[in-house]
Task: inverse folding
């Protein structure tokens, strides 16, 4: 009878403590009296009662995990952005053959002297258009030698004219050439283009007509 009362008392206290106290409940025996007893221990119980975290505790854990993951991705994004901004982009390329360009035709510079940080260099050599892969500030410098009487060409960013060059050449002499140049600094986004557009222009080849693009910031 005493044993049943002790069992009932144990079950009652266990249910109460499960709801109110963050302890493990253990049932232990008394060797001297032979009676059962109730003992609360924080650790190393013979029979442990598994506690279930309350919903708000679980919610806090989820929030912490989300915050930590967000911070990690933010750090990765910042690192990638910094690396992209500090990436070197350099290009110097020249005209390969003597050629007369018609109005609004893009001048091509396929003879590349220096190139770094550009993966689409072949496209530039074919089309004459530099496509930005790393956003930032770029310096574009162009000089062109020609024997055309009225020399005109434009430096372009996408469809926008960012600089114009005019030259008057005296063609009475066979080897009467003039060189006109322009240098500008512009801000580019990814996929923006830089190129040179002619206007009925004869262009001298090799080191007499070249283009240079440098990322400066």
Result:
């Amino acid at each position: 009878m005493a044993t049943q009362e002790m069992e009932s008392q144990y079950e009652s206290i266990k249910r109460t403590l499960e709801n109110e106290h963050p302890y493990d409940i253990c049932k232990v025996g008394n060797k001297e009296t032979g009676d059962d007893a109730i003992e609360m221990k924080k650790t190393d119980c013979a029979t442990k009662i598994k506690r279930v975290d309350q919903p708000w505790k679980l919610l806090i854990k989820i929030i912490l995990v989300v915050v930590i993951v967000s911070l990690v991705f933010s750090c990765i994004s910042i690192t990638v952005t910094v690396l992209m901004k500090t990436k070197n982009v350099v290009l110097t390329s020249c005209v390969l053959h003597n050629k007369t360009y018609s109005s609004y035709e893009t001048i091509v510079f396929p003879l590349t002297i220096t190139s770094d940080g550009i993966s689409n260099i072949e496209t530039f050599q074919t089309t004459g258009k530099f496509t930005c892969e790393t956003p930032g500030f770029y310096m574009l410098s162009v000089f062109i030698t020609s024997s055309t009487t009225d020399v005109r060409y434009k430096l372009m960013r996408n469809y926008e004219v960012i600089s114009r060059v005019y030259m008057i050449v005296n063609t009475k002499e066979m080897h009467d050439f003039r060189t006109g140049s322009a240098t500008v600094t512009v801000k580019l986004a990814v996929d923006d283009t830089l190129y040179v557009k002619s206007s009925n222009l004869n262009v001298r080849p090799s080191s007499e007509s070249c283009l240079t693009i440098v990322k400066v910031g």
